[in-house]
Write a structure and sequence with these properties.
282 residues; alpha+beta; Arc Repressor Mutant, subunit A; Beta-Lactamase; 2 domains; six-stranded antiparallel β-sheet; three-stranded antiparallel β-sheet; 9 strands
Length: 282
Amino acid sequence: MNVAGKTPTAGTAPTAPDTVSSDTDRYHVPALARGLELLSRFSRRTPELTGAELARDMGLPRASVFRMLHTLERAGYVERIGDSASYRLGLGVLRLGFEYLSSMELTEIGNPVIVRLRDRTRCSSHLVVRDGREVVFVAKAPGESALFQSVQVGARLPAHATVLGRLLLSDLAPAALETLYPETRLERFTDRTPATLADLKRLMAADRERGWAMSEGGFETGISTVAAPVITGSGRVAAVVSVTVPAQKIEPERALSLAAQVRDAAAEIAVRLSHTAVGGLA
């Protein structure tokens, strides 16, 4: 191999530079990748981080991390917390998130559907998708009760602990589900939260057989959720539609009535998505 600074041996062709190993690498911008990685270190569990913590977690020199923080702070993507050494995500990230959510075809199609669902049921209605091990609220129509008003568009909840997540996980193959949840015990939030992957699978199997799902205090006590999946023509679960009832228990007749309405809403969104996919029809 030709070493930089040395002349190749006679009769041999110089090798290509090692700095470009593929077309993909040629367009890779390391500084941008590191900045995006820094932003991804902030999460629901770690909303505040210091420069020193980020440098340690990312394996980078402190000076490099502080330069990135300074640049991101000036752009509004992170902000310093008072006079402390800690940072949190700034409004710039929030604006990007809302712009993305508002531009989603699913959101545009689903919004009027869940508003009508709210009007019929008089319950808070939601449209959610999955991002890894979390569910993300992408649209909401507030109901009469203030009990569940705190959940905003962009809010995240643990998938395994919610009926919403169970339905969103239901199209994963067993191997993919086991990869996503390799731990022996799952985090529990109430006594109704599944404690193991086997418990979660049993609940998911029952949901699939029924075609809809209901949770009574699986993540938060005092509320119940009735939900149904938005299933595409290929069988993928694209989203979940739900209504939230401010009660620990729902009478069986009301549960069935809500389930029928939620399933109708989910089916309507699925049909609209399929029409848009094949011909741009609303």
